[in-house]
Every structure is written in structure tokens, then in C-alpha cells.
Amino acid sequence: MTSTHEHHHAPADLAPEHPPRLPVSQLLPDVYKAMVRLDIAARKGLDPVLLELVKIRASQLNHCAFCLDMHSKDALAAGESVERIVQLSAWEESRHFYTEKELAALALTEAVTVLTDGFVPDEVYAKAAQHFEETELAQLIAAITVINAWNRFGVAGRLPPGHYSPGNHKS
Q1: How do residues 137-152 score in pLDDT, each as one tens digit?
Q2: CA separation (Å) from 6 to 13, 19, 20, 90?
Q3: Mean pLDDT across the chain
Q4: What is the pLDDT of residues 56-90, one digit of tens each?
Q5: How many Cα atoms within 13 Å fall on the side-chain side of residue 143?
Q6: What pLDDT score does 1 carry?
Q7: Quick check: 128 and 105 in contact, CB under 8 A?
Q8: pTM for this structure?
Q9: Which residues are within 8 A (CB) of 132 and not within 5 positions of it... i.e. 6 or more apart?
Q10: Which of 32, 65, 99, 142 could serve as 161's disulfide partner, Cβ 3.0–4.6 Å?
Q11: Closest to 81 (Cα-Cα) out of 56, 46, 106
Q12: Helix crossing, 122-131 with 100-113: angle to 10°?
């Protein structure tokens, strides 16, 4: 089985790529278009690099390979460093790579994403409120909510990573 993309440094004995399970965007074009509009509305006024960090971290927590591929590539295209992207999965041990505002956004991303751990703690919310004015904080919460929704479509639909090129898609 040949793939439609090239692996420049990959060995020849890679596991086969799994097919997508459910093409939600094709089956429900109205839902997909509404999600894209929601995504555009949620990101208004937010720093694009901070937004990509948030999207990558939520996607790591939700194990969404498709969104990890997309948003890591988008972050790199936006000028983000490989080092900061790599360290996101251990950001609490790599605090010196991020600004206090980014750290507050990452903590809020984790709290809003992993709701099964309990409510969003007051101290996490308060720290974010120190770094984001009210409307920007609301936008951040909306953006975290939207990437979590995209992650759930990606994971449930088992969308395969590796085919995304920055500029092809705006979610």
C-alpha cells in the first residue's frame, strides 16, 4: 500500500496508515462549515502563535494525531520554534521556554480540556484573568472549546495525520 505523501527520513518498514473511520466533513457539510465559522469567530483578537500552542496542547491531551500534525505545522509556518513545540507536552517542567501569559493560557487549556479531573480551578482561572483582559479571556476559552470539538471529530473519525500542508486549511 503506497501513501500519498513522502517520508524523507522514514524507514521503509513503517506500519501501514489506517484509513479514516468516518468522514464527518463530507457526511455533514453544514456541521463542518458551522465549525469553521465558529473557529474563525473564536480566534478573533488572539495572538496566532499563542493560539497554535493552545491547539497543540489540547490536541496532545486528547490524542488527536490529525490536529497535532496540522497545528504543529501551522505553528512552524507562523515562526514558532521546534524546541517550544517539542517541550509543550512537558511545559510545566519547561516553563522557561514560555512567557507568563503563555503559561497561564496552557494551564487554562489543560483545565478546560480535562474536565473529568474536576472543575477549572479558581487559581488557574485567576492567573489567566491576570494576563488576559476579559474579552480576550472569553476568546481564549472559546478557542480552547473549539479545538476540543475538532479533536473529538478527529479522534472519533480516526483522521490520519501526515497529509496537511500549512495554508491548505484554516481550522
Answers
A1: 999 999 999 999 999 9
A2: 14, 17, 19, 29
A3: 91
A4: 999 999 999 999 999 999 999 999 999 999 999 99
A5: 27
A6: 42
A7: yes
A8: 0.89
A9: 101, 104, 105, 140
A10: 65
A11: 56
A12: 140
